[in-house]
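EI: anyone free to look at a 337-residue chain?
SC: sure, send it
EI:
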Amino acid sequence: MAWLRIHSPKPAIDKTDMKAIRVEEYGGPGVLRLQEVPDLQPSRGQILVRVRAAGVNPVETYFRSGTYSIKPPLPYTPGTDAAGEIAAIGEGVKNWEIGARAYTSGSLSGTYAEYSVCEESSVHALPEKISFSQGAALGVPYATAYRALFGSAKAQPGETVFVHGASGGVGVAAVQMARAHGLVVIGSSGSERGRKLVLSQGAHHVLDHHESDYLQELLGINCGRGPDIILEMLANVNLAKDLSVIAKRGRIVIIGNRGTVEINPRDLMARESHVVGFLLFNMTPEEKKSTHAALVAGLESGVLRPIVGQEIPLSEAPRAHEAIMQANAYGKIVLVP
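SC: here you go
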């Protein structure tokens, strides 16, 4: 991941300054401040995107706080996911035209802004039937779900997958993909609204993970065998539970975590199960290319349909960072410049 420091080259399009969220010190949501910043211009192999919507991801709150292992150099503009139109192209870019609709899966300058500079490899075609807000929900959540299911877990048709926390951006994506791939899909959510969403997106069964007996209910679905795959969104709370219900030789993919956890290794031993750590930023260029080719195909066919839970003005980015860390997630949170 790279962060591009904003400078003032010759304007790429007919405009002067732009608005962007800037972080000048690590800290709480209040350090996200809307500012007027100098214009951007793409260099060779780069594309300037006019941002119509920017996706908000939990990892961006960790960067902002300064407590994550990766610390962007200060000052910086957060964000990697956005959707909008191509505003300018750098030298050597051949496959894009000004005005084309696109979504991003990475940014050099950040996406919490009116414009964003991206490497050409991080810009992907956005089908007409997908809104800009939906497009902003793709980069991290859908790529995470795809790679976790088919790269890390090696999901196969006929297997059972439990999406432990299925009503957020990654969870919804995983439910849609798993159902389309022929898996038996079980999701969980802590709210009635979230459970209805999970069912509507294709889950065969949905559980309330706030109920004390939901794990027994999970085991009952498959005659006590347990799921072949668990996609875990909050490992510090749930990993020990997952190990007690995973099927023999099952796979648990840790997608999200916010602390430490104590487990009993005998649960791993008895089932010969596998726990796999996951970090989207470890994708190779080849994996990224194939992942987004699959996502675009899913969008075009209608199999994938991002759910936007909240649209929040760019100027209220601190509120978006507060909202994304709250329990009972519902779809994707996007910022609208």
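EI: The chain has two domains: 18-138+306-336, 141-281.
SC: 👍
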